[in-house]
Amino acid sequence: GGYDTQVKLWDVSSGVSLGKAYSLAVHPPYDREVASLAISPDGSLVAAGSWDNLIEVWSILDDSVLEIQVGGEEIYYNGLAFSPDGSTLATGSSDGFLRLWDVKTGEKINEVATGYLDSIPIVLFNYAGSVIAYASDTVIEFWDTQNLERTSDPLTGNEDTITCVAFSNDGKVFATSHENGTILLWDIQSGQPIGQPLLGTNSQITALVFSPDNSILVSGSELEIRFWDVESGQQIGPPIDGPGSGSGEIDFSFGLGDQILVAGGYNEIMILDINPERWITRLCQQVNRNLTIEE
Length: 295
Prior knowledge:
This protein is mainly beta. The chain is built from one helix and 24 strands.
């Protein structure tokens, strides 16, 4: 998604465009661009929002579109997230409301006022679908998806604005990145930070993801991608170059086993394979021999 109002689809395994593009509906008086984007876990639905109160959900299977009107005209942003089963869309809005929507009917399931107004919120389901994280400015709250009730006290401890969040796959650890370039790991059960902040980033982080076994956290910005050992908090190796300055916000996720898909704005898409055994195999093929232990 980008400034051209279009959402384009790509085949992750080949890196080739699927030739599908969805355009945001005209919604006067707004000059619409894709400001938020979410894909359902099974890949069948794409939700997109602009700097207004209209959300559009496209079906990749039959190209049908569902429009969801979120609140009144005072809303200027909606954070988006699909539930793990793809049946529910969560929106966090600039009016301070967390809302749940039925993606088949477009009907509102539930809503709650978080109290955080005039912000650009981030919403995210845990992998079990039982909890939604709602991050606004410097505060993180967890809400039970069944009744939209807070499950614990808010997480606080860093006075810099949150730029990105991630749940570990087992739901035990929560990661936050901040405008000052730091990353914090949180114990969800106790609500306390784990170890010291992760330091060393040179640009604002816009993407975080845990590896499938939860041992590695990956952080990404337009300039660089870094790998962190979750247990020790130490960086693993040097950073990898990102899409580049001016590419805009990036996002990525683990897929194809242990590959990472890195998507940068402005027509830049990268696929990084981080499996060391495949690296070695390709190197051996290139030099036409086996590598030594030292190599």
